Prior knowledge:
alpha/beta
Amino acid sequence: xxxxxxxxxxxxxxxxxxxxxxxxxxxxxxxxxxxxxxxxxxxxxxxxxxxxxxxxxxxxxxxxxxxxxxxxxxxxxxxxxxxxxxxxxxxxxxxxxxxxxxxxxxxxxxxxxxxxxxxxxxxxxxxxxxxxxxxxxxxxxxxxxxxxxxxxxxxxxxxxxxxxxxxxxxxxxxxxxxxxxxxxxxxxxxxxxxxxxxxxxxxxxxxxxxxxxxxxxxxxxxxxxxxxxxxxxxxxxxxxxxxxxxxxxxxxxxxxxxxxxxxxxxxxxxxxxxxxxxxxxxxxxxxxxxxxxxxxxxxxxxxxxxxxxxxxxxxxxxxxxxxxxxxxxxxxxxxxxxxxxxxxxxxxxxxxxxxxxxxxxxxxxxxxxxxxxxxxxxx
Length: 379
């Protein structure tokens, strides 16, 4: 029968393994930092999808041979990769030096600061044109090669119209979450190259690798390629889309999602249960849902109000359909219509098709992480 002494000896062995593991992580970090330097010098993108896929596949196969859970190994590898991408952000390659200097209008806002920092890491001269710099706007814009508009949606028309003339060869770009109207504003203002971007992320990202940016053509798209190449160097995933189709997609992806989260957060705030009480008896999936709701309310109320208001008139039809679906579901519940509920479930399931299985597998990993991150109260 094992004794306490045996247990202590085993724990010492585990501690030794953990120490060795930390040493290996430090060694791996040093190697990935060297990789980052070489990529910067060679002008190579931070993200190499084929290399990543090959590495994951090889290590999973090795794990199976050694009777180690492949999912555990993949989780560790992906976390190390994320750390490597973060460490490689310090100095980045410059894909389009002809686009310097870069002027960011609204560059003191959170997203403006994010882009300014990334351009500076890539060696571009970056100038900020915000409220305090308005008296010097003409001078700041005089020799600009890239002007990025990073201002609230409801202010973009006024701000762009009031800008001094922009050099004809300069690339004019906006990063708002709506594209048709902002692009029209930019095209009316500037006779040179114009492109619309929508970064599908917020200012709190730790790195740009795999971050999606939607690209909508404006004018003289070939003159905007240097900017897109720079985004690729940073590791971003570019999705080219017509501005109208983009706005229609955002009505579902952003406006309806934010609206639903906004309403649910208000609903929770009116309940008799405290957040602590709800979290104490929550499943991992509900913990994750609470995180996503709480995430919205940790951010700018002005930003999310603008996003919802900007396309509200365009989503009224979607809202009516959503409300109708909700009421039909309530009616089935009131009538005890199990068969009707199953039919509705099957109809939605057919929309997700084979992706449903993939989402089930992916979400399982997220739920495990949410459960692992749970803070237990020992008091």
